[in-house]
Amino acid sequence: MAKKKKIRVAVCGMGNMGRCHSDHMLKIDDVELVALYDDFGTPAERFKEEHNLTCNVYSDYDLMLEKETIDAIYICLPPFCHNGQVEKAAKKGIHVFIEKPIALTLERGKSMVKAIEKAGVISQVGYQMRFGNAVNRFLDLVKSGEAGQPMLFSASYECNSLHSDWWRVKEKCGGQLFEQVIHLYDMAQYLMGKAKDCSGRVANLGHKQIPGYTIEDTSIANIVFANGTLGCITGSNCAVKNEWNAKFRIICENLTADFVDQNHATITWTNKNEGSVEIINGTNDVSMMEDVYFINTIKGKNKPFATIKEGFEDLKLVAAVVESSENDGKVVRL
Prior knowledge:
Elements: E1 7-12, H1 16-25, E2 31-37, H2 42-50, E3 56-58, H3 61-67, E4 72-75, H4 85-91, E5 95-98, H5 106-119, E6 123-125, H6 133-143, E7 150-158, H7 170-173, H8 176-192, E8 195-203, E9 218-225, E10 230-236, E11 245-252, E12 255-259, E13 264-269, E14 277-281, H9 286-298, H10 308-326, E15 332-333
Parallel strand pairs: 1-2, 1-4, 2-3, 4-5, 5-6, 7-10
Antiparallel strand pairs: 7-11, 8-9, 8-15, 9-10, 11-12, 12-13, 13-14
């Protein structure tokens, strides 16, 4: 029997997410981790030594693409480092997984989407919340018609951390909206459909005394979705320390769903079977699941999901919230 061909994967950026995805690649059947890239090389070398790997390590992205035969690449760089890696990979026919946000500007995002579509390669954005048990149970209720018309999506992302130096600089990370709260904006558009317009405010209220802290630590947005649903999403980096909470509530015609996170929710029926409650305590390893899904998409087993085009729609939405804030909360059409 002929030996099954393995999917050859490279990981670009060896911070927390790069290490996470690399760990997963070592556990997924039919995957070979062939190269690690990091600007400074050291984090990649450290990962290679820790796991006793034989893959090559690069500090030159172009050289890696030239020397290695790569089927898929994970782009896990900080947002300010995105300067053509997606486009170069796509041009060589390499499938691309990219962490959010896909870019800091709409121009950069458009360039990525255009390159992916022109090359016809598979893309996926790191929206792991989509793989949660509770999220998918809610989707089933919407698709079956049992939930009825969605009416209100409300969500809040809360934490309290200085994070890394680059994360505090607007020109490097885009802000908390781009870096963290975007997960909830993706949930909103994934579950409610495309946003039609929005208005919002962002402010730095609690970190003005921190040198180099130029991003917002407080945000609020009002959203109107194309299907008529209304939404409100808030973000804070002034909440409880050592907690990262991404909670949301969806009120529908027949039920209200309260999500603690993507795996845990309480669904309370408000019409049919009024008062009955369904509690979802899921255990999905959503980070591993998104990687397995991406690899299986490359194998032809799945349809493309959370594509870079969808990542661009989320980028447009958070950028519109910032634009609205810069214009005294004026409504921005999408």
